[in-house]
Structures are given as structure tokens and as C-alpha cells.
Specification:
The protein is built from 16 helices and 19 strands. By secondary structure, it is of the alpha/beta class. The strands form 5 sheets. It has an 8-stranded mixed sheet, sandwiched between helices. It has a 5-stranded parallel sheet with strand order 2-1-3-4-5, with helices on both faces. It has a two-stranded antiparallel ribbon with strand order 6-7. The chain binds cytidine-5'-triphosphate (CTP).
């Protein structure tokens, strides 16, 4: 089933496969073969590092086309049968870098254009999928973290690396993702040929809120905002004009999305109401339930007498419930999230009750255990009956599945 879906999504796509240096390059030979088997046209670029691990001949044989290696390749740049580096950049509906070495990642992050791979990457505006592979220490090094954060901010997609043995004998995170995983991620990253939500407006909120206690301290929660950012990005990719209202979080602003930063629940409430009318609202934010009745101006001093301190809190307005009960400008589809504790049955039961109580159309149940993680398991409830759909995996892939469901719902409605 999964395989059929993958095959269909890649069929007819032009894929630029950049093979960097690393022992994992041998898996890229199989990747090239499987991409072609899926109906994609593959053009490979082999970096100088990659050439140390696989031969141009094997890559050419499996990708079905001559491999490009040099930036200054007179015949390819002038010959009508070869592609110049600019044509290479335009060729890809999707660019896959596998393996993406620490060095290649660093050069990409700095915008270098010192060989064919980096020059083509800089000239390309196609969706980009990176499958990193490196020693676990290199992966966790602050320099690599920094470089990746930059690239993620530019809107690249990542698959892997996975945990396990690496070629150098160290065990940890650094193994390149398996070919099947890369294929699935590629299918989901390749820009959809049509934009099912073109002409629609979407509102997403995400992240925690900060409720001031005094001028220095605040009440917050552990939400990373990751899921909401992924959903905003997937909605924009599906063609929706998307506004993301987010509380303080460290996620890079998603590409193609209008992003508005707020702090408190009250500010988030106002920003969401001002965004109306929208066709779809997806409320993923972990909005603070309470705020101080009167935040203290200045710093509350401790008394030093061990006596209990009381903070007087009042409830915040409920953004989701308010959007759901709007009259003239109610979004066509209001999707709530329900962060719940307990076992699967309890999580579902609480989410169903929340959907009824708040009056939203759909609710997505998730366990509070996944907050802040990269992977998740979401259960989508769309009606009063007992059914639900489950999406599990990387938060970005899960976001796309949810957006596919949203698109289907609008396709049916129109
Ligand atoms: N929500 C909201 N405004 C609030 C509180 C929550 O819009 N003031 C939204 C969240 O964005 C989410 C949904 O309501 O879409 C459920 O949030 P959750 O924190 O799970 O529920 P609560 O309303 O806080 O209820 P409880 O604390 O009882 O679980």
C-alpha cells in the first residue's frame, strides 16, 4: 500500500540526485534505481567526496543518464545534449542530497558555490530533501546543529539520520536513512503538481503562550510549536494563503507563510480574530489556560519567611471555542487539537468531549508525551461516531497527511 502510494507520487517527476561523500553513498545507487523504478527521471551529480565511494559508471548505469561531476565542464555547458549547471538547477522538481555529509551541509548553509553540487543547489528553487550521514559526534556538534538550523529555516526537508552503528564504529545518530524512508520522504516533499488549496485562506496558531507573573517571570508550557509550524508549511505548500500566529518558540519561520509573533494568550486571541475571515483554522497552540489577574509591575520580592505565596489567576478566553461559535465569519473548517494524558482510549474520549464542548468541526487528539518530539501519533476525529484516523511519524509528514484530508474536505464541499 505504502509502496504503491510512493510510486505514484514520484512518477513523472524530474529528480536531481546529489551524491556527497560518505560510505552511505552505496545506498544512493539503490536509491537512484528505485527512483527510476518509481517512474521518475533521475539526473545525478557526484561530488568529489562521493567519487571516493562510488564510481560515476555505477551511478550512471543505475540512474539511467550520464553523471555530472565538474562545474567547469566545457562539453556539458556548450553541447546541446548536456545540461549546464543552470539547466541542472531548473531540471529538478525535487533535489535530493544523499548522503549529505557534514561538509556539504556546512557549505550549503553558508551559501557556498564552489563546485557543481553547491552551485546547482544555490541556483535551484526546487524543494530540497537532505539525507545526512556522518559520525554521531559530527552530527551532534554545535556547528552542524547551527548549519542545519539555518537550512531548516530556509525550508529544506530532512530524512534521518537514524540511530545505530556507523561505519566508523561509533554507535549513535548518524546513519543515513534507509532507501525506503528516503523514497517516502521524497514522495511527500515533491511539490504537489496542483495546489488543492489555492485561493483559500488558512490560519494556524502554534507554540506556547507566556503569561506574565511580573516584569521578569512568566507561566509557560513545554510546547515546541513544531507541529503547528509543519501544518502551516504544509498548508502553504498546498497553495493556501497562510497566516501563522505563534507564541514564543525556537522554530524557524516557515517558508511561504506569513508569521506573526505574539506572547500572551490574549494577544494570540486578538491576532486570530483579526485574521478572520479564513477558510480553515487549525488551532495547534498550547494556549495558557490562566493568566495573572494583575501581573505585578516590577519584580515580586521573596519574603524570606517560608510562607506560601499565592498567585491569583483567572482563566483566559478560549480561542478555539470563540472561532467555532462565530456567526458571520466562522471559518469553513475549524480544527482543534487536544493534548491529553492517559492511555489511547482516555486520550480519544477526552478529545471527543473537547470537540463537543468547544464546537469545532474536527479535533486532533495527541498525547502530551509527544510534546517537543520530532515524531508524533495523531488521531483525527471528524464526526460524532467512534471512528478516527491515525497518522504517525515525523511531524512534517503527519502535517502533510492532515493537510491532504483538509484539501479533500474542501474538494468535496465545492
Ligand atoms: N485552546 C484555545 N484557547 C484556550 C485554550 C485552548 O484555543 N484558551 C485550544 C487549543 O489551541 C487546542 C484546544 O483548545 O486546539 C484544546 O486545548 P487543550 O490544552 O488540550 O485543552 P484545554 O481547553 O486547555 O482543556 P483542558 O485543560 O481541560 O485539557
Amino acid at each position: 500500500m505504502e509502496k504503491t502510494l510512493t510510486l505514484r507520487a514520484l512518477s513523472g517527476k524530474n529528480i536531481l540526485l546529489i551524491v556527497g561523500g560518505g560510505i552511505a553513498a552505496y545506498k544512493s545507487l539503490e536509491l537512484a534505481r528505485r527512483l527510476r523504478e518509481s517512474g521518475a527521471k533521475v539526473q545525478a551529480i557526484l561530488t568529489a567526496g562521493g567519487r571516493e565511494f562510488v564510481t560515476p559508471l555505477s551511478l550512471a548505469t543505475l540512474s539511467g543518464a550520464p553523471v555530472r561531476e565538474e562545474l567547469f565542464d566545457a562539453s556539458a555547458e556548450s553541447d546541446s545534449t548536456g545540461m549546464s549547471h543552470i539547466e541542472l538547477a531548473r531540471f529538478g522538481d525535487l533535489v535530493i542530497v544523499a548522503p549529505a555529509s557534514a561538509n556539504l551541509i556546512a557549505r550549503m548553509a553558508s551559501g557556498a558555490a564552489d563546485d557543481l553540487a553547491t552551485t546547482t543547489l544555490l541556483a535551484s528553487d526546487a524543494p530540497l530533501l537532505l539525507a545526512p550521514a556522518m559520525n554521531p559526534n559530527m552530527w551532534s556538534h554545535p556547528a552542524t546543529r547551527r548549519n542545519l538550523a539555518r537550512l531548516l529555516g530556509d525550508g529544506i526537508e530532512l530524512v534521518g539520520p537514524n540511530e545505530g552503528d556507523t561505519a566508523c564504529g561509533d554507535v549513535g545518530i548518524g546513519r543515513m536513512a534507509e532507501v525506503d524512508e528516503i523514497l517516502r520522504a521524497a514522495a511527500s516533499t515533491a511539490a504537489p503538481a496542483h495546489k488543492p488549496l489555492a485561493g483559500r485562506r488558512a490560519l494556524v496558531n502554534a507554540g506556547p503562550t507566556f503569561e506574565a507573573i511580573d516584569s521578569l517571570r512568566y507561566i509557560a508550557n513545554r510546547s515546541s510549536g513544531r507541529q503547528g509550524h509543519a501544518i502551516a508549511s504544509a498548508l502553504a505548500q498546498a497553495g493556501a494563503d497562510t497566516l501563522l500566529v505563534r507564541g514564543p518558540c525556537e522554530q524557524p519561520a516557515p517558508k511561504g507563510v506569513d508569521t506573526l509573533n505574539v506572547e500572551s494568550a490574549a494577544q494570540m486571541f486578538d491576532a486570530c480574530m483579526q485574521a478572520l475571515p479564513v477558510d480553515v483554522a487549525v488551532m495547534t497552540a498550547a494556549v495558557g489556560d490562566w493568566r495573572m489577574r494583575e501581573p505585578f509591575d516590577g519584580k515580586i520580592r521573596k519574603r524570606g519567611n517560608n510562607a506560601p505565596v499565592t498567585l491569583e489567576l483567572v482563566e483566559n478566553a478560549d480561542i478555539l471555542a470563540e472561532l467555532s461559535k462565530r456567526k458571520e465569519d466562522r471559518p469553513g473548517l475549524v480544527v482543534g487539537f487536544a493534548a491529553e494524558s492517559g492511555d489511547a482510549q482516555e486520550v480519544l474520549a477526552h478529545a471527543r468531549a473537547k470537540r463537543e464542548r468547544k464546537g469545532c468541526d474536527w479535533i486532533v487528539a495527541n498525547s502530551i508525551d509527544v510534546m517537543g518530539n520530532e515524531n508524533t501519533r495523531l488521531r483525527l476525529i471528524t464526526s460524532n461516531n467512534d471512528g478516527f484516523e491515525e497518522f504517525a511519524g515525523d511531524k512534517r509528514l503527519v502535517a502533510r497527511r492532515l493537510v491532504e484530508r483538509i484539501s479533500e474536505r474542501f474538494a468535496k464541499a465545492s
